[in-house]
Amino acid sequence: MQTFSETLARAESMHTEKLALVCDGNERSFREFFERCHRVGSILNELGVAAGERVAIWAANSDIYTELYAAIPSHGRSILPLNTRWSFSELAYAIEDGGAKLLITDRDPGSLIHSVDHVLSIADYELMVDRAEPLPFADVNEDDLAGLFYTGGTTGKSKGVMLSHRNIVSNALHSQFTMPLVGHDRYLLAAPMFHAAGTLSVLQCLSLGVTQIILPAFSPEVCLDLIESELCTATILVPTMIAAMTEAQTLNPRSLNSMRLLAHAASPITTEVLKRACEQFPNAEFIHVYGATETTVVTALRSEHLLIETSLGKSVGRASLGVSVMIDGEPGQPGEVLVKGPNVTSSYWNKPEQTSESIRNGWYRTGDIGYLNDDGYLFLVDRAKDMIISGGENIYCSEVEEIIYQNSKVLEATVFGIPHPHWGEQVHATVVARDNSLTENELIDFCRMYLSGYKLPRSVAFQENELPKSGPGKVLKRELRSPYWAGHERAIN
Q1: What is the pLDDT of residues 253-272, one digit of tens each?
Q2: In which band, very low, low, confident or very high, does the pLDDT at 17 lie, cut at 50, 70 and 90?
Q3: How confident is the model over 81-87, as a mean pLDDT?
């Protein structure tokens, strides 16, 4: 069972009147969900989207997004999710590069109408579903393209990550191995569905008959309210979401006792944020999931909340079932993390050079620097591009960030290298403080208690608003970093 069609057919035979989706007060049973999925095939035929072609979706999370995500690949086409935070030029690039024939959207498409053959509003889609004829799911191959997921573009032009049916179904199995759900769970879908984390558990939930509670757009207050009112039991978030929720929960406490599994992914979480979250979700098992769009689940650290004070608490866990992890470097030294398995993309869309650079002999080169201990636990040191070299010494940004976050006056922080006339590069921090009392010297002195001299921030910039983030919630370091490197031929010294 390695295709969407087979996965949905099995689920359809097992789940009928049970509640499948809850979104903005709307509820759909599994019977209604699968019936609507069968009608999607007729809509695609009517709009001239041929087998193998792409359908772009530019919309907020919803029950309709969920059925499109499941149904489009099941009818032999592939889905192209679009980041709702992108500019029109970025959206047009992904649509045109991916060759999407149809755009389905819940907002004004503007100039994007020139990038596709057809634009279908969510309202018009609903009308078409009501009159469409149900069709059987297509007989697709596990190697067929199921989804074309464009990377966030934080390091340049976005790349279309080609995920086959086998890739995505394998990830559903890996997700179950990582975060085991049962039929009576109520899963909170809060991460954006244009991102791999947002759709990671969709097929998993459908297969198991798990009800999905869908949050259209993330708000820490609304997220907490839903957990309390809908008795949500499991979810996956990004650390910035968890940090925002801990702040909101402190100001207005809710009952969060129903949550039993809380996974986080997409970027590292600081120890301080994790500790606060553990206090506020007393019954939750915290799970650190490590992966990328090209792989989704690679490793997981189960029971992270029990390991905070141990050396294993700094790891991202061990490889998921069927996934191989290897370090490309000198024995015993940090090196680039390589990943192989049925979850790993085979290539980037129309980018053979980037494909050959990143995927060699089936191994995906993550660009992350890390090491494995004797028990197979993976420890990440940093992203290669986030390493600072100052006076010939390597400084890993995540280590400095970890210390800065321990200062109680810091709400958000990120660290990167900026030019220095003598040392080549210096450590710089951009910080959002909880109030105006924190000063540059105070923060540097705080770091001095925990870091070697050469690792200390040499400059600190404060900003009032939150740090800029990509749609999935990653801090856009490149956006903050680029002004310091303006006029330089390259962004390293």
Answers
A1: 999 999 999 999 877 788 88
A2: confident
A3: 87
Q: Does residue 153 carry a pLDDT above 90?
A: no
Task: Write out pLDDT tens, residues 270-311.
Answer: 888 899 999 999 999 999 999 988 998 999 999 999 899 898
Selected residue with higher pLDDT from 329 and 295: 295
**CA–CA separation, 137 and 116 (whole Å):** 25
d(CA 366, CA 164): 19
Query: Comparing 162 with 470, which gets the higher pLDDT?
Result: 162
Judge whether 8 and 74 are in contact, CB under 8 Å. Answer: yes
CATH code, residues 4-378: 3.40.50.12780
> What pLDDT does 384 receive?
65
Backbone angles phi, psi at 302, to 5 degrees: -75, 155
Q: Can you say how many angstroms the Cα of residue 424 is from the centroid of all Cα atoms in its chain? A: 33
Cα separations (Å) of 302 from 45, 50, 250, 281, 317? 44, 43, 26, 16, 7
Strands 145-150 and 424-433: unpaired
Q: How far is CA 17 from CA 27, 29, 382, 477, in A?
A: 11, 5, 47, 47
Tell me: pLDDT of 156 over 50: no
Give the domain ranges of the chain. 4-378, 391-485
Taking the CA atoms of residue 221, residue 224, residue 226 and residue 231 in that order, the dihedral angle to the nearest 10 degrees is -170
Q: Write out 261-297 in H/E/C secondary structure.
A: EEEECCCCCCHHHHHHHHHHCCCCEEEEEEEECCCEE
Q: Cα–chain-centroid distance for residue 162?
A: 16
Taking 90 as the threshold, does the pLDDT of residue 240 lie above it?
no
CB of 340 closer than 8 Å to CB of 324: yes
Residue the block writes with tokens 């995906």? 364
What is the spatial distance between Cα 463 and Cα 67, in angstroms, rounded to a whole number? 40
Amino acid at 197: A
Q: Does the 391-485 domain belong in CATH 3.30.300.30?
A: yes
d(CA 300, CA 325): 12
- Orientation angle between helical segments 4-14 and 63-74, nearest 10 degrees: 120
For residue 381, the model assigns a pLDDT of: 83
Handedness of CA 400, 384, 469, 179 (dihedral sign): negative
